[in-house]
Amino acid sequence: MKRVRVMLCAAVVSAVAGCSGLGAGASPRAQVLFTGAQCGRSEPNPAARWVTRDAVWQSTYGALRANGSKAVQPPSVDFDERGVLVVYMGRRPTAGYRLLMHDTPLSVRDGVARLTLEWQAPPPDAVTAQIITSPCIAVSLPLSGVAHIEVYDQQGNRRLRLDAAAD
Questions:
Q1: How far apart are CA 88 and CA 94, in angstroms?
Q2: Cα–chain-centroid distance for residue 143?
Q3: Does 19 have pLDDT greater than 60?
Q4: Is residue 48 a contact partner of residue 87, using CB atoms and an 8 Å limit?
Q5: What pLDDT sits at residue 68?
Q6: pLDDT at residue 23 above 70?
Q7: Beta-strand pair 136-142/148-152
Q8: Rounded to whole angstroms, how far apart are CA atoms 61 and 87?
Q9: Which alpha helices (H) appear in 21-133, and where do they start and end?
Q10: How far apart are CA 129 and CA 95, in angstroms?
Q11: Mean pLDDT lowest for which of 11-15, 104-108, 128-132?
């Protein structure tokens, strides 16, 4: 009976640790907070911004939402534990461009967080609205152990690298 209780306790502890991301070998996770097609970037090149303070997140989120919909409160972020990476695709000539993140673990090694995003473009023969777009995505990342952030596309090409210094 004692052995069964010990095994049951071990199973519960393992399950709780796994659910909280504390299990052995668990990878840190990135969480999508916002995606949009009109994020206000007029330059054609990709860019990124690392946000580590609530006041900066509030203003950044307001600017992201200003071009597309009613102002609402941004998703809550615990800035003692996490930061927000905003990735801008840059100005695009038509609709059909997007940045997506799939449920993949964030790789953190030697102080470098590596995030892979899908950089979607419309097929060459697609009929798209002729409207200038500026796609972006805001992703929450853990702060612990991160000195630099690298953003890769789905083909493994590095698109951006930035320091994870406080903003």
A1: 16
A2: 13
A3: no
A4: yes
A5: 55
A6: no
A7: unpaired
A8: 12
A9: 54-66
A10: 5
A11: 11-15
